[in-house]
Design goal:
Structural class: alpha+beta
Radius of gyration: 16 Å
Mean pLDDT: 87
Strand order of the largest sheet: 1-2-3-4-8-7-6-5
Helix content: 10-25%
Strand content: 25-35%
Distance between the termini: 31 Å
Number of strands: 8
């Protein structure tokens, strides 16, 4: 089975993919098989950790470094969170697949701003709140947005100090605007 991981993740943000869809389950199976993850495929896919709220659900695939937020129907994928390896206590493993737009968990806050060549919205910092950078893109932007008209990427970092020039990415959030 082959998957274009980067393209599939963006396709999931179109508001039509449900967590019970065969394509979503095939994607998770692909990650487990392709990256030789030591986890039970059926158990990981059939029994994710799920937290329901009145307006959405959060589905956690702790062994895959993936968290999904659903739309209010509690089934349709709305937002995808991809976790960096060993930067989070709950997620046993980081997301093993290819990130969209040739992003890399190896990049830090300074490298991301330079590479994306676009001033982000900067938030957090100070005290115990980690910093984050948020970018909005449209089809006219420099990144390939063939899958979506408008979308956002949020980079959450580990540390809360803006002067930390080597602050590693904790997780990446991808969503449609």
């Amino acid at each position: 089975m082959e998957f274009d991981e980067e393209k599939f993740i963006l396709t999931c943000l179109n508001g039509k993919v449900k967590i019970q869809d065969k394509h979503w389950k095939d994607f998770l199976s692909f990650l487990i098989t392709n990256y030789n993850l030591n986890t039970n495929i059926e158990e990981e896919i059939s029994n994710p950790n799920k937290k329901d709220f009145s307006d959405c659900s959060y589905i956690n695939y702790f062994n895959l470094g993936i968290q999904v937020m659903t739309k209010p129907d509690h089934e349709t994928i709305d937002t995808i969170f991809l976790y960096n390896n060993d930067k989070d206590k709950q997620f046993k493993k980081g997301y093993p697949g290819k990130l969209p737009f040739q992003l890399s968990f190896q990049e830090n806050n300074v490298q991301l701003i330079k590479r994306l060549n676009k001033e982000p919205i900067k938030k957090g910092g100070g005290g115990k709140i980690p910093i984050w950078l948020e970018y909005y893109f449209t089809k006219s932007s420099e990144l390939d947005t063939s899958q979506l008209d408008k979308y956002g990427i949020l980079f959450n970092f580990v540390n809360s100090n803006w002067s930390d020039l080597n602050n590693p990415i904790h997780f990446i959030t991808l969503y449609k605007l």
